[in-house]
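pasting for the record
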Amino acid sequence: MARLGGKAPVLKYIIPAACVGLLVAGLLANILWASSSSSRPSIISYWESSEDSSKVIPLIETKNFNNNKAPIAREKKNSTPEDLSVPLLEWEEMVQAPVPRLDGAAIQIGNLLYVLAGYGTIDYVHSHVDVYNFTENTWGGKFDMPKEMAHSHLGMATDGRYIYVVTGQYGPQCRGPTAKSFVLDAKTKKWSQLPPLPVPRYAPATQLWRGRLHAMGGSKEDRHEPALEHWSIAVKDGKALENDWRPEIPIPRGGPHRACIVVNDHLLVIGGQEGDFMAKPGSPIFKCSRRNEVVYGDVYMLDDGKEWKQLPSMPKPDSHIEFAWVVVNNSIIIVGGTTEKNPVTKKMVLVGEIFRFNLNRMEWSTIGRMPFRVKTTLVGFWNGWLYFTSGQRDRGPNDPSPKKVIASTWRTKLSL
């Protein structure tokens, strides 16, 4: 007892000193970790939970519109150097999609928008189709995709009944592409298989033109290297008329995430990028790792099948727009996307503008802003209204970097 009592004054000072030391060490470690992690963007920063909205800066106020309860966008002005100075259009929020989607695909047939695949989170991909009815403002008619079909970064086109799906990425994270291709009869909701593309491709530019299904560009098997190859196959009423794809004239500039449009018997490819995320070497889950990307606004046209012609470039470089377009009154409308990364922070920069390419004048203009910046949005047009749904939105008016994967659906009256 006497011996223990004699050491008590020493313990009285040692224990508090040890606690202080641990606190200081922890604080220093936290500072060092934060400084090192902020020096380079992480894939995690691009994949915030789609369900966690606690950190999302609120951007809109709501008011009644035509005596209904739909929110109308009244956002503060975007204020970053990447934003173009154009007015915010009046947007009405519609019913949400059943699930959030990033890098999904969409095709409009009549008053229905068929929405396929896409990421729910970086570790989860959708393998079904949801259908939005423009007339009734409802989502419904969910049905499954084939088990062997890609889950994101699809190439897709339609003839008004049959939806042709070409290659894409199979699985979550940054897994590689598949060469398998399919066709959906939208009337019966039955799937059948098409001859596979000669090699797997990731996000190829895809369109029907002169009785042939064309697929070109995209990224190669590593997900990063741009591809220039261009193939086509004859199709009719949902069936391939040939056993194999034939080579066509290569596209002048390769890469994924481009709009591919046929209008006035011309085949146009708009925007896109060179490079993309790759799987981290040795990762058993193909964990995404960022690589250098070059976003561009180039526009190419093929009108005789023999030579690509370059048309005026977009108002600014734009990518992630493969299903973000519609054709209205002989004009191509492109909604949102991504542009060149921030030169200081190196973060991805989202686009919040709506661009118009007037085919009569062959010139671009910027016609307005979205309620927020968003990439890989899915776009349709019905009865004078421009619609968009899904994608990944920004962090707020002062931060154009990506945050939340969304399920919201919006529309604005479009008069050209």
